[in-house]
Design brief:
about 25% strand, about 25% helix, alpha+beta, 4-stranded antiparallel sheet, single chain, 3 helices
Amino acid sequence: MLCLPGGQLIIPKHKDGKYSLLTDNVIRNHLRHKYAVAIFAGESASSFICFDVDDGQKQTVHGVVHALAELGFPRERIYVSSSGGKGYHVEMFFTRPVYTWKLKEVYRRVIRITGFDKRSVEFRPTNGNAIKLPLSVHARTGNCLLYTSDAAD
């Protein structure tokens, strides 16, 4: 899915109805801020998990990071980025796809440990809800989705 300046979302398809692939050129344009690329998870697996922190509170980000560390995930594998708007993304990437049910269990454990509301910390990506890739530009604010360490510390 591409997010064009002004917030318009499109899902590029070929004439035969098949979705476009994530190519080097698409990534280049994403990094040049011509548009933002958002991706969905597969129906049953994903190569990453994102905790979409919408309340804009650094203490919420701290809580998610600490909960993941408590569950045994190395802190150096936990990445925090500004969402470009009011919130943050706490992400972990994997070398191969992980079943969605396992990722959702990690998410549920983090919510249980932190006591946060599922509306203030959302599970992403799903096969129905995309998440913008880091280093893109936010369509409304023009801010870049940059990795940050100040929210994670």
